[in-house]
Design a protein that fits this description.
By secondary structure, the chain is an alpha/beta fold. Helices cover about 50% and strands about 10% of the residues. The protein folds into 2 domains: about 210 residues, Rossmann fold; about 80 residues, 2-Layer Sandwich (Uridine Diphospho-n-acetylenolpyruvylglucosamine Reductase, domain 3). The protein contains 12 helices and 9 strands. A hairpin with a 2-residue loop joins strand 5 and strand 6.
Length: about 300
Amino acid sequence: MEPAVAAIRAAVRESVDDLDPGALVLVAVSGGADSLALAAALAQEAARLELRAGAVTVDHGLQDGSPERAADVATTCAELGLDPVLVETVEVGDEGGPEAAARDARYAALEAAADRVGAAAVLLGHTLDDQAETVLLGLARGSGARSLSGMPVRRDRLRRPLLSIRRVDTNEACQAFDLVPWADPHNSDPAYARARVRQEVLPAMLDALGDGIPEALARTAALLRDDADALDEWAAGVADPCEIAELSQLPAAVRRRALRNAAVAAGVPSGQLTLNHVLEIDKLLTHWHGQGAISLPGGLVAERAYDRLTFR
């Protein structure tokens, strides 16, 4: 067995080893090398693990010929022995930019498909290279530890078995499986930030700093995820996140998390609450000089009243 195939099959086994016999596992397949290699490995491992294995592909409708391409992907998945094979067509909006909008539509479609067929898990084909790119994008945005921690191995039923696997290995596995991946032109389109990181930034770092850069970035993501989880847990345990005296005793990283929790609990939409909003709320504690209410998304405001923060 080719080393790349063995590594991917082992990653799949580890990812689903907690599922009950007979559980249905879906693999999200775009037609690229990463997801095709993952689909083939799942098809080979499912029987020995006593699991049912299916696939879902999402037609974003963003390129000419996308329905035909989705149909081709579905045919390939069926030929691998995956069943059921689902094709989900989505309408991509524009909120948050094209990349974010397509991602949101895709994840919503995957969740809906999993609900419809009762899947216990959905496998995603993100690799170690994808994780490194995600960390670099977070650095460029000036993000905090949670964003820099990258993509989790698991979140609810979404699982990423290949986060320790390099992209070169998924290409080698496709050759071994006799599969021909589809090259998405968006992945090399400089209009997209991730494509620029993939085509220009990461190769430049490899040239300057050595081949271990993707692994180092992925390790950084894992360490930061542990830190972020600990800080989130601490903040979630704050007894009264609106009590000035209690908040003032907390480290800034915990205090700001607690403030964010309080704002979201009051009704501020989580996806619209930015770091700048939280920092402005924080100034009601740390730089108080009688300032007025802070406007927040969702039509709410935060203000200081005596010894408490209030949201209304």
